[in-house]
Amino acid sequence: MLRTATHSGPVVTVTFDDGATTRFHAIWLRDNALDPETRAPGNGQRLITIGDIPADTTVGNTRVVGGDLEVTFQPEGKTVIFPAGWLADHAYDRDRPKDAGRTAPGLTTWDSALAPPGADWNAVHADPRAKRGWLAAVAEFGFARLTGGPVEPEALLRVADLFGYVRETNYGRYFEVRTEVNPTNLAYTGLGLQAHTDNPYRDPVPGLQILYCLENSAEGGDSIVVDGFRAAQRLRAENPEGFALLAGHPARFEYSGSDGVCLRSRRPMIELAPDGELVAVRFNNRSSAPFVDIPFDRMEAYYQAYRQFAAIIDDPAMGVAFKLEPGESFIVDNTRVLHARTGYSGAGSRWLQGCYADRDGLLSTLAALELAQPEAAE
Amino acid sequence: MLRTATHSGPVVTVTFDDGATTRFHAIWLRDNALDPETRAPGNGQRLITIGDIPADTTVGNTRVVGGDLEVTFQPEGKTVIFPAGWLADHAYDRDRPKDAGRTAPGLTTWDSALAPPGADWNAVHADPRAKRGWLAAVAEFGFARLTGGPVEPEALLRVADLFGYVRETNYGRYFEVRTEVNPTNLAYTGLGLQAHTDNPYRDPVPGLQILYCLENSAEGGDSIVVDGFRAAQRLRAENPEGFALLAGHPARFEYSGSDGVCLRSRRPMIELAPDGELVAVRFNNRSSAPFVDIPFDRMEAYYQAYRQFAAIIDDPAMGVAFKLEPGESFIVDNTRVLHARTGYSGAGSRWLQGCYADRDGLLSTLAALELAQPEAAE
Question: Which Pfam family, giving just one, matches this sequence (chains A, B) (predicted)?
Fold first, then answer.
């Protein structure tokens, strides 16, 4: 509920009933008007362009009507209602964090002390709340396990179907992760793999990876996940200049292990939004290409930062380890969480299937579940 | 061919036979060593991590051997050959452009004077050179037409099969672009659409869009494409501060027109790499959400820049227009090139099918064709 609304030139000032005050610009309000001539009823899309709004738009009048804001815009003479709750949700007249390397609201970073979040196969199929909790864990922590699933090839595609769409690549709709004789990728050997994000040579990288276990009787072959955002923040704390170097210069990645495939990218190991929020981490020793975008006189410091970032990632205090049993799987947010595996021996067998999926599909499904179950929101 | 190689502390200096001189650091050379213990023969992936390389790595000896560089690293006592051509290709001891908003090498920006690049359906199926030219046009200009294709539903999927993989979304593997009674998206009406990039509410956005024409006898319904990178550079020239505002603050985009779909993103309209190279443009009046990440005292200037950017995009001097005939299609690089359509009337019919595909698949197929046809490289 609004208590007062006033205007002065192109600025509207409102006071909420709790005494909080905030300001909006006439052009911003006009562009975001919620009336059916501005926004299509139903699909909610904007029907006008910025060019349709007079450049000299200003406020002719403001009133509080039923606790909401009524604004009349000039020269259009158009009157629009803005609900008080909508204004509170979209207020931009505020201090904002400026520290480079902060995480988006709603994310929780973690280290080895985290109990791995997870859910049960049957529950996420039967109970929308269980499904919501599972997807919310991926959004908050960047990974989640799923236990109790069928031990069946292609079951991982049913995991993807729960929230979105498989992203097909040169590796197929899904790929077999087991020892091959002439591997096109070191993932298809028994070697241990340092914690890494997948396919940094792709742009964009796959947003999510699902790894689904069908056999795991070999010695070793444990899974380890590491929060790349926590690692980046630790680097920032230990070596701010090194953090700035990894965030401030593109790295290069490349893969051309199969016929007809030649993937190359030019992206930083630590990606920030223009306002400093952490967007993504890319880290993969196997597919790092020669870095050629760092000035000569910064290269040694860049390598020092890279070495330090790697040491943080390899630090056992950072990783959460678990061994997948047949029928178990996990999802990682490949823009944030690195995954590793310990080496495994020829005794017994290890067979996983992996696929990629889009992160926006998962977040969309989660947001729609949250809208449908508002009472469950924390 | 190298003429000389010397070292001093951790730096190796080489002189090519044309007299050019460049320097490399010991740690960089060691990390990028090409020997089979460092790089897996076959798939080319690196077998060691940065932590496997001694932190005190330095150069014990350098020699020119058969025109190539031989380096012995200490304390490992490891000797590795670096071909002269490889060193020339990966030299980083150079001045690099610093201007924000420059385009990557190999891109050509354009305006309405451009003759739309295109290729013929049969040619790209039969002739690898024609296919290569067609894909190279997408890489260089951000769009290309394809004419002479079959007038058959789902033919667009065969276009995607030529270079990569469809990216399935909530709109399906592909979607119908024609007038609907209760449209979930304004694209499915006869309205004109301002030039836009698709799905900026998705993160990452679809890298490529294919629009394939099956019927187009309606009045209007012309296609227009605009080079978003050229538009960004024009904004930079006309209003450098406005360019910096659009590049320096995240915008917001949102779509929730269908049940169970709630897509939101927080990305700038003009995205730059950390070193200022243009990465992407996002522009869509229909799905822009309220911008809340711009400081209050910059919001008016931000909107002024947004209005100016829109006016540049709408300027007829910027757009290349064509009318698709049945069996014709075009690909747009949705991270760079905006597309528009003029409104069309109920007389006659207009039916397009659209789908998304990944840009990295196209660029990989192109790079592999270039490696296979080196003599054709310009």
Answer: TauD
